[in-house]
Amino acid sequence: MGKSDLLPCLLLAAGRGERMRPLTDNLPKPLLTIKNKSLLAWHLDALSRAGLQNVVINHAWLGNKIEATLRSGEEFGVRIEYSPEGTALETAGGIAKALPLLQPEDYFLVINGDVFSPNLPINKILEKVAILRSDPNIPMAHLLMVPNPVQNPEGDFFLENAQISSRDLGAGEKLTFSGIGLYHKDLFKDLAIGTPAKLAPLLRVAMEQNKVTGEKYVGPWHDVGTPQRLQELNAAYE
Protein backbone atom coordinates (compact mmCIF):
# COMPACT_ATOMS: atom_id res chain seq x y z
CA MET A 1 0.00 0.00 0.00
CA GLY A 2 1.50 3.30 -1.11
CA LYS A 3 1.56 6.46 0.93
CA SER A 4 -1.15 8.02 -1.21
CA ASP A 5 -3.53 5.24 -0.11
CA LEU A 6 -3.09 6.46 3.47
CA LEU A 7 -3.96 10.02 2.58
CA PRO A 8 -6.18 11.70 5.17
CA CYS A 9 -9.50 13.10 4.00
CA LEU A 10 -11.53 16.06 5.24
CA LEU A 11 -15.29 16.12 4.64
CA LEU A 12 -16.60 19.68 4.82
CA ALA A 13 -19.89 19.73 6.73
CA ALA A 14 -19.96 23.09 8.54
CA GLY A 15 -22.32 25.03 6.25
CA ARG A 16 -25.71 26.26 7.42
CA GLY A 17 -27.56 25.20 4.24
CA GLU A 18 -29.72 28.32 4.03
CA ARG A 19 -31.02 27.49 0.54
CA MET A 20 -32.11 24.09 1.84
CA ARG A 21 -34.45 25.48 4.47
CA PRO A 22 -36.80 24.33 5.93
CA LEU A 23 -35.15 20.90 5.51
CA THR A 24 -32.02 22.13 7.31
CA ASP A 25 -33.77 23.86 10.21
CA ASN A 26 -33.43 20.71 12.31
CA LEU A 27 -30.89 18.70 10.34
CA PRO A 28 -27.42 19.57 9.01
CA LYS A 29 -27.42 19.63 5.21
CA PRO A 30 -24.87 16.78 4.77
CA LEU A 31 -27.23 14.42 6.65
CA LEU A 32 -29.98 14.88 4.04
CA THR A 33 -30.55 11.59 2.25
CA ILE A 34 -30.58 10.22 -1.28
CA LYS A 35 -31.93 6.68 -1.52
CA ASN A 36 -32.24 6.67 2.31
CA LYS A 37 -28.50 7.24 2.69
CA SER A 38 -27.04 10.53 3.89
CA LEU A 39 -24.73 12.55 1.65
CA LEU A 40 -21.93 12.02 4.19
CA ALA A 41 -22.58 8.27 4.25
CA TRP A 42 -22.19 8.13 0.45
CA HIS A 43 -18.77 9.77 0.81
CA LEU A 44 -17.70 7.54 3.71
CA ASP A 45 -18.60 4.39 1.78
CA ALA A 46 -16.60 5.62 -1.22
CA LEU A 47 -13.57 6.47 0.95
CA SER A 48 -13.72 3.06 2.62
CA ARG A 49 -13.84 1.27 -0.75
CA ALA A 50 -10.76 3.26 -1.81
CA GLY A 51 -8.89 2.14 1.31
CA LEU A 52 -8.82 5.56 2.95
CA GLN A 53 -9.45 5.24 6.67
CA ASN A 54 -8.41 8.52 8.31
CA VAL A 55 -11.33 10.90 7.99
CA VAL A 56 -11.97 14.26 9.65
CA ILE A 57 -15.39 15.93 9.47
CA ASN A 58 -15.73 19.59 10.36
CA HIS A 59 -19.09 20.88 11.54
CA ALA A 60 -20.83 23.92 12.99
CA TRP A 61 -24.61 23.99 12.52
CA LEU A 62 -26.19 21.08 14.48
CA GLY A 63 -22.83 19.33 14.44
CA ASN A 64 -23.81 17.19 17.42
CA LYS A 65 -26.30 15.42 15.14
CA ILE A 66 -23.50 14.56 12.70
CA GLU A 67 -21.42 13.05 15.52
CA ALA A 68 -24.41 11.17 16.97
CA THR A 69 -25.28 9.74 13.54
CA LEU A 70 -21.84 8.76 12.23
CA ARG A 71 -20.08 8.17 15.58
CA SER A 72 -16.57 6.70 15.22
CA GLY A 73 -17.07 5.64 11.60
CA GLU A 74 -16.65 1.98 12.47
CA GLU A 75 -19.76 0.92 10.54
CA PHE A 76 -18.21 2.41 7.41
CA GLY A 77 -14.77 0.90 7.97
CA VAL A 78 -13.14 4.28 8.60
CA ARG A 79 -11.95 6.26 11.62
CA ILE A 80 -13.69 9.61 12.02
CA GLU A 81 -12.41 12.53 14.05
CA TYR A 82 -14.41 15.72 14.34
CA SER A 83 -13.36 19.35 14.03
CA PRO A 84 -16.13 21.43 15.61
CA GLU A 85 -16.43 25.12 14.79
CA GLY A 86 -18.30 27.42 17.16
CA THR A 87 -19.12 29.62 14.20
CA ALA A 88 -18.47 28.48 10.65
CA LEU A 89 -14.94 29.42 9.56
CA GLU A 90 -15.53 29.33 5.77
CA THR A 91 -13.79 26.66 3.70
CA ALA A 92 -10.12 27.62 4.12
CA GLY A 93 -10.58 28.54 7.78
CA GLY A 94 -12.22 25.19 8.42
CA ILE A 95 -9.41 23.34 6.64
CA ALA A 96 -6.75 25.21 8.63
CA LYS A 97 -8.46 24.31 11.91
CA ALA A 98 -8.72 20.65 10.90
CA LEU A 99 -5.07 20.31 9.77
CA PRO A 100 -3.74 19.26 13.22
CA LEU A 101 -6.23 16.36 13.18
CA LEU A 102 -5.50 15.45 9.55
CA GLN A 103 -1.71 15.45 10.10
CA PRO A 104 -0.94 15.21 6.37
CA GLU A 105 2.59 14.44 5.26
CA ASP A 106 1.97 16.86 2.39
CA TYR A 107 -1.23 16.31 0.41
CA PHE A 108 -4.71 15.48 1.65
CA LEU A 109 -8.13 15.01 0.07
CA VAL A 110 -11.05 17.39 0.70
CA ILE A 111 -14.65 16.73 -0.34
CA ASN A 112 -17.63 19.03 0.13
CA GLY A 113 -20.16 17.26 2.31
CA ASP A 114 -23.08 18.56 0.27
CA VAL A 115 -22.15 17.23 -3.16
CA PHE A 116 -23.53 13.93 -4.43
CA SER A 117 -21.15 12.04 -6.69
CA PRO A 118 -21.89 8.32 -6.76
CA ASN A 119 -19.08 6.28 -8.34
CA LEU A 120 -16.58 9.02 -7.50
CA PRO A 121 -13.25 7.58 -8.74
CA ILE A 122 -11.28 8.20 -5.57
CA ASN A 123 -8.57 5.70 -6.54
CA LYS A 124 -8.02 7.61 -9.78
CA ILE A 125 -7.74 10.86 -7.82
CA LEU A 126 -5.20 9.26 -5.49
CA GLU A 127 -3.05 8.29 -8.46
CA LYS A 128 -2.45 12.01 -9.00
CA VAL A 129 -0.61 12.29 -5.67
CA ALA A 130 2.56 10.66 -7.03
CA ILE A 131 2.46 13.06 -10.00
CA LEU A 132 2.04 16.08 -7.72
CA ARG A 133 4.91 14.90 -5.51
CA SER A 134 7.22 14.50 -8.52
CA ASP A 135 6.48 18.01 -9.82
CA PRO A 136 9.40 20.34 -8.91
CA ASN A 137 6.95 23.27 -8.85
CA ILE A 138 5.15 21.65 -5.85
CA PRO A 139 1.50 22.22 -6.81
CA MET A 140 -0.61 23.57 -3.95
CA ALA A 141 -3.83 22.02 -5.23
CA HIS A 142 -5.28 19.60 -7.76
CA LEU A 143 -8.96 20.28 -8.44
CA LEU A 144 -11.67 18.11 -9.94
CA MET A 145 -13.57 20.29 -12.42
CA VAL A 146 -17.00 19.47 -13.85
CA PRO A 147 -19.12 20.72 -16.76
CA ASN A 148 -21.04 23.84 -15.74
CA PRO A 149 -24.41 22.98 -14.16
CA VAL A 150 -27.52 25.11 -14.74
CA GLN A 151 -27.02 26.93 -11.43
CA ASN A 152 -23.45 27.98 -12.39
CA PRO A 153 -23.49 28.51 -16.18
CA GLU A 154 -20.47 30.84 -16.19
CA GLY A 155 -18.17 28.34 -14.48
CA ASP A 156 -15.40 29.10 -11.98
CA PHE A 157 -11.91 28.57 -13.43
CA PHE A 158 -10.22 27.80 -16.74
CA LEU A 159 -8.64 24.38 -17.34
CA GLU A 160 -5.93 24.17 -19.98
CA ASN A 161 -3.37 21.35 -20.30
CA ALA A 162 -3.99 20.22 -16.71
CA GLN A 163 -3.30 23.74 -15.40
CA ILE A 164 -6.05 25.76 -13.74
CA SER A 165 -6.20 29.52 -14.03
CA SER A 166 -8.62 32.26 -13.05
CA ARG A 167 -7.82 33.92 -16.40
CA ASP A 168 -8.37 32.63 -19.91
CA LEU A 169 -4.90 31.85 -21.24
CA GLY A 170 -6.09 31.05 -24.73
CA ALA A 171 -7.38 27.53 -25.26
CA GLY A 172 -8.81 26.88 -21.82
CA GLU A 173 -12.29 25.59 -21.03
CA LYS A 174 -14.13 27.36 -18.22
CA LEU A 175 -15.51 24.76 -15.83
CA THR A 176 -17.07 24.53 -12.38
CA PHE A 177 -15.08 23.46 -9.33
CA SER A 178 -16.65 20.27 -7.98
CA GLY A 179 -15.79 20.87 -4.34
CA ILE A 180 -13.43 17.87 -4.55
CA GLY A 181 -9.68 18.35 -4.55
CA LEU A 182 -6.24 17.45 -3.30
CA TYR A 183 -4.46 20.16 -1.31
CA HIS A 184 -0.94 20.66 -0.05
CA LYS A 185 -0.82 21.65 3.60
CA ASP A 186 1.43 24.63 2.77
CA LEU A 187 -1.49 26.33 0.97
CA PHE A 188 -2.90 27.11 4.43
CA LYS A 189 0.32 27.81 6.34
CA ASP A 190 -0.28 31.57 6.69
CA LEU A 191 -3.82 31.27 8.07
CA ALA A 192 -4.47 31.93 11.76
CA ILE A 193 -6.31 28.94 13.23
CA GLY A 194 -9.83 29.83 14.28
CA THR A 195 -10.14 32.77 11.88
CA PRO A 196 -12.68 32.63 9.01
CA ALA A 197 -11.03 32.49 5.58
CA LYS A 198 -12.30 31.77 2.08
CA LEU A 199 -10.63 29.21 -0.18
CA ALA A 200 -10.93 30.98 -3.55
CA PRO A 201 -8.46 33.82 -2.78
CA LEU A 202 -5.79 31.31 -1.72
CA LEU A 203 -6.35 29.30 -4.89
CA ARG A 204 -6.14 32.40 -7.09
CA VAL A 205 -2.76 33.36 -5.61
CA ALA A 206 -1.50 29.82 -6.23
CA MET A 207 -2.90 29.89 -9.78
CA GLU A 208 -0.87 33.00 -10.54
CA GLN A 209 2.22 30.93 -9.65
CA ASN A 210 1.05 28.00 -11.83
CA LYS A 211 0.68 25.91 -8.70
CA VAL A 212 -2.87 24.63 -9.27
CA THR A 213 -3.45 21.63 -11.52
CA GLY A 214 -6.72 19.93 -12.35
CA GLU A 215 -8.73 17.57 -14.50
CA LYS A 216 -12.22 17.42 -15.99
CA TYR A 217 -14.61 14.87 -14.51
CA VAL A 218 -17.69 13.94 -16.53
CA GLY A 219 -19.14 11.26 -14.24
CA PRO A 220 -22.25 11.85 -12.13
CA TRP A 221 -21.87 14.90 -9.90
CA HIS A 222 -24.54 17.07 -8.31
CA ASP A 223 -24.45 20.10 -6.07
CA VAL A 224 -27.39 19.37 -3.76
CA GLY A 225 -28.30 23.01 -3.29
CA THR A 226 -32.09 23.22 -3.02
CA PRO A 227 -34.97 21.04 -1.77
CA GLN A 228 -36.16 20.69 -5.37
CA ARG A 229 -32.76 19.39 -6.48
CA LEU A 230 -32.75 16.88 -3.61
CA GLN A 231 -36.22 15.71 -4.61
CA GLU A 232 -35.15 15.37 -8.26
CA LEU A 233 -32.07 13.34 -7.30
CA ASN A 234 -34.08 10.99 -5.15
CA ALA A 235 -36.49 10.47 -8.07
CA ALA A 236 -33.66 10.00 -10.58
CA TYR A 237 -31.79 7.44 -8.46
CA GLU A 238 -34.93 5.56 -7.38
From TrEMBL:
Keywords: Nucleotidyltransferase, Transferase. The keyword Transferase applies. Gene3D superfamilies: Spore Coat Polysaccharide Biosynthesis Protein SpsA, Chain A. Residues 10-129 form the Nucleotidyl transferase domain. GO terms for molecular function: nucleotidyltransferase activity. This is Mannose-1-phosphate guanylyltransferase. It comes from Polynucleobacter wuianus. InterPro entries: GlmU-like, MurU, NTP_transferase_dom, Nucleotide-diphossugar_trans.
